[in-house]
Amino acid sequence: MLQIKNLHKEFPKEEGTMVAIDDFTYDVKEGEFVCILGPSGCGKTTVLRIVAGLEERTSGSLMLDGKEVNGPGSDRGMVFQEFALLPWRNVRKNVEFGLEIKGLDVAERKVRSDKYIELVGLKGFESYLPKQLSGGMKQRVGIARALANDPEILLMDEPFGALDAQTRNQMQKELLRIWEETRKTVLFVTHSVDEAVFLADRVVVLTSRPSRIKEVFEVKQPRPRDRADPAFLALRKRILAELEQETIQSQQRPA
Q1: Are 11 and 5 in contact (CB under 8 A)?
Q2: Are 145 and 97 in contact (CB under 8 A)?
Q3: CA quadruple 172, 229, 207, 40: dihedral sign
Q4: In angstroms, rounded to a whole number, what is the distance separating the alpha carbons of residues 69 and 218?
Q5: Which of 52, 86, 170, 177 lies most in the core, judged by the most C-beta atoms within 10 Å?
Q6: Which strand (E) or helix (H) includes residue 54?
């Protein structure tokens, strides 16, 4: 589904450039749920933004379903941490935003928005404005808006990072329910090892900047997963150890 090969990204700075991502190569299978983890500031979000077409790559290739990615497209749906809802548009109008841009007529927009509003559990809230919604409900709107365009892949940048722990756990379960119903391919960035092990088929651990793939962990536990299960805790411990080792190694590298 998604093929990333030799991805390289540099940002200009006062003297020369800063390499954010170097030789990043990875394939995401169709229908797979992949989580990306790494030290703070390592470039996780930059990888996601390049896949979304919101950030240009310096070099390397990026193919989605056999087609080269060069800029944004409706074949990719993005869900942001900050919700990114339009405050003057109600739930339905936010969900239909991309459909309006695509030029779909009113009747088709309503059919699609009804489908995804119900899918994310917001039926009855169509006329509510974002200011009337809780954080979890706002993120449900963001997910429905991304899905309404029927993308090939769903890109999620720490979508539950701004939520309280209880709401975050609930939204993780809701996201898995939605994923199991839609079987969309998901690329999900998170800081939380617990969240990654709970959600993912595979967890990709990145190095400190410049970001490369350090290790890939396959999560073999069947869903729904029990966070207290010894296998869950053992994998969580292994990933935490990998991240801790990377933090120590990065401090020993020359600046």
Answers
A1: no
A2: yes
A3: positive
A4: 27
A5: 52
A6: none
Degrees to nearest 5, angle at CA 160 with 181 and 145: 50
Residues 138/141/143/145 CA torsion (nearest 10 deg): -140
Minimal CA–CA distance to 27: which of 219, 196, 182, 204? Answer: 204
159 SS3 class: coil
Rounded to an integer, what distance in angstroms lies between the CA atom of residue 33 and that of residue 65?
A: 16
Counting every residue written for the chain, the total comes to 255
Residue 254 has pLDDT above 60, yes or no: no
**Look-up: residue for tokens 């967890």?**
203
pLDDT, average across residues 217-234:
95
Q: What was the pLDDT predicted at 251?
A: 63
**Residue matched to tokens 């309280």:** 164
253 — pLDDT class (breaks 50, 70, 90): low
Taking CA atoms, 190 is separated from 8, 41, 108, 162, in Å, by: 21, 12, 34, 12
Q: At what angle do helices 165-182 and 106-119 cross, to 10 degrees?
A: 120
Segment among 16-25, 71-80, 127-136, 241-250 with least mean pLDDT:
241-250
No. of H helices and E strands in the chain?
8, 10
